[in-house]
Sequence to fold (385 residues):
Amino acid sequence: MKPSIYEFFVDPNRCIGCQSCVQACGECDTHKGTPMIHLEYVDRAISVETVPVICMHCDSPTCAEVCPADAIKRTADGVVQTARKPRCIACNNCVLACPFGVPKMQSNFSLMMKCDMCYDRTSVGLRPMCASVCPSGALWYGTREEMERLRPRSRPVNTFRFGEQTITTKVSMMVPVAGSAQHIDVTSAMNEEPTGESNALDSVFEDM
Amino acid sequence: MATTNPDSIPPDGRPYHEQPQWRNDFPIDWPQDELVARRDFTKFLVLTSLAFVVGQAWIAFENWSRKRQGRPPVHKIARVDEVPVGATRVFTYPVAHENCLLIRSGADRFVAYSQKCTHLSCAVTPTSRGLHCPCHNGWFDTATGQPTAGPPRRPLPRITLEIRDGVLYATGVEVRS
Fold:
């Protein structure tokens, strides 16, 4: 499969928290009514900051590495697909393992569902649903050259370090040109009190 | 795209031929996970069809050679007075390894069947309730050889008998369905 010349860029600085991407994602016919993108509030009590979370499509996908059922696959164009329904055993391993917090367990389907970069659209050259509706360009899909021309004060980063783990991703995060990308030590953060509403097991407890 | 690798990178970063076998058995990459290529499947279809064609030809040849054998041989089984009423006797017909069962159910009533159960070819044994196949508890009627219980669905092949000068002869095998 010939890799697309288009790339996905996420710039959380531009996110205005309008939920358009969530609505657009839920409109897709392949998973209608269940948005696979999620919009995280960083610390809602003191800030309006929001972060759209899409799958970063790692070169070494941790979710697939930890899957005991061999359900998560990565296609030749570098897109990590959502769990295969016949294989997924709803064990939540991927949900807990993903360093970006992307996979979510749909306990009513017993299936992990995550962003697959709108594979039905991007594989035929269309833009993903979220990127096509984002009014502020926080989610942006296009060529790297055009991105550099449009946003000269930002640069794309696609290497991340979580503790000992270095991850290269297909999706790039836009960071300011000045200043270096921070390396996050996940293990030290485990001792802190969790902030925000993100909880990997939300959907499990909702049903109880 | 510069950032996209065609294959996923194992966490330790070493090449695939240095990875343990399980990683190749359960690949993360979709193309490697396609166990059956379209060409392999086509090959399988063609070769299987060919095998069926050859099998049909072989069956036709077997039928043809069986017809060429002509009338079955006539074998002497026993003298009539050697088999008391109600007794049974095992004989081989038409060839040495084909066991058959002769049953004298009345003074002048003889029946004979192939001893091979029509289910899975175990040897049937005569009992007071009929012919019993112990392998899967199959039962046949003694008078007709028809299946009465258990897995067999076809009757036992009947051996046609003839009495000449007080001697029993087997003259043919009647395969029924």
Observations:
- Chain B is about 25% helix and 30% strand.
